[in-house]
Design brief:
about 300 residues; mainly beta; 10-stranded antiparallel beta barrel; about 70% strand
């Protein structure tokens, strides 16, 4: 078992990194830190040796990225026209992501795994944009769709404590840290005069308690997630004097912070070192996912 001092040090570093990188957004599946395929059976190797694993994951999630006010440069009213002086410029979005991917990794010890993530997502997004100047204002929404958007990332799972409740229910406390990068683009300029693209960097920390009850491995926990990135929105159908081309051409950084959510799920072990998992996430998003993992 990993030395308790090393475990505490890893946990402290993870919390500091998350707070320094504070932002929020769409979230990765957490997974069962007590997955029976990883910690119990093995297919082709001795239980005491390093174990590789592959998981196929399907995940559907809905979330809302709340209002973010753009920091528009200040214009001196003595030297600028009314059309360019702003009260506010606000964006928000509602999105649905349907993702299919792989989690490939290794069990490095009896308390530590490393893994890589890759896959694609189909995306539906509604972008809301509000712009108010001294004598002119508008609020508009545009719908966008994109398919087979690539994502990739890395992650690690660390088991913090193993024990038994009332001498007959084994349980495990652990944490999972995941980083993902996601790119999305829908160019509809030739169809309806709109365009949207975004590059998102996500980091998520989850603390999870897993148990084993009558052959089922339930788990539940809390997570804090973060997104930073950049987005661009073009709408040629609405005139705006503030932009050089005379229509909306908005580009800015994305900075959402410290969203908290919850995760519940359960795994069952099939013959060999294969497991099936169902997971639901609540709070900052609504998501449902299924996965199948095999260790060898």
């Amino acid at each position: 078992m990993m030395d308790i001092r090393h475990t505490r040090a890893l946990f402290t570093v993870a919390m500091l990194l998350l707070l320094l990188h504070a932002a929020t957004g769409r979230c990765a599946p957490v997974g069962n830190i007590g997955d029976p395929a990883l910690w119990n059976g093995r297919l082709f190797t001795d239980p005491d040796t390093r174990t590789l694993f592959v998981a196929v994951e399907y995940d559907a999630q809905d979330n809302t990225l709340d209002d973010q006010q753009r920091r528009v440069r200040w214009d001196d009213p003595r030297s600028s026209t009314e059309e360019v002086r702003h009260y506010e410029q606000i964006r928000s979005s509602d999105s649905t992501f349907t993702c299919m991917g792989l989690r490939i990794g290794a069990v490095m010890s009896d308390a530590w795994t490393l893994y890589a993530l890759t896959g694609t997502c189909d995306t539906e997004l509604t972008f809301h944009h509000t712009d108010t100047t001294v004598n002119f204002g508008f609020e508009t929404s545009s719908d966008f769709e994109s398919s087979s958007d690539l994502y990739f990332g890395v992650g690690t799972t660390v088991l913090l404590h193993k024990g038994t409740f009332r001498e007959d229910v084994p349980f495990t406390l652990g944490m999972d840290i995941t980083y993902r990068r996601f790119d999305f683009e829908d160019d509809s300029l030739s169809d309806n005069g709109t365009f949207y693209s975004a590059t998102l960097d996500e980091i998520q920390l989850a603390v999870v308690l897993a148990a084993e009850l009558w052959g089922i491995h339930p788990y539940a926990g809390a997570r804090i997630s973060s997104i930073t990135g950049n987005e661009r929105y073009i709408n040629k159908t609405i005139q705006s004097y503030w932009y050089p081309h005379g229509y909306i051409d908005y580009e800015d950084d994305i900075t959402w912070s410290k969203n908290v959510g919850f995760v519940v799920g359960a795994s069952v072990q099939l013959p060999g070192a294969i497991s099936l998992t169902v997971e639901s996430r609540l709070g900052d998003e609504e998501a449902l996912g299924v996965s199948a993992a095999v260790a060898f």
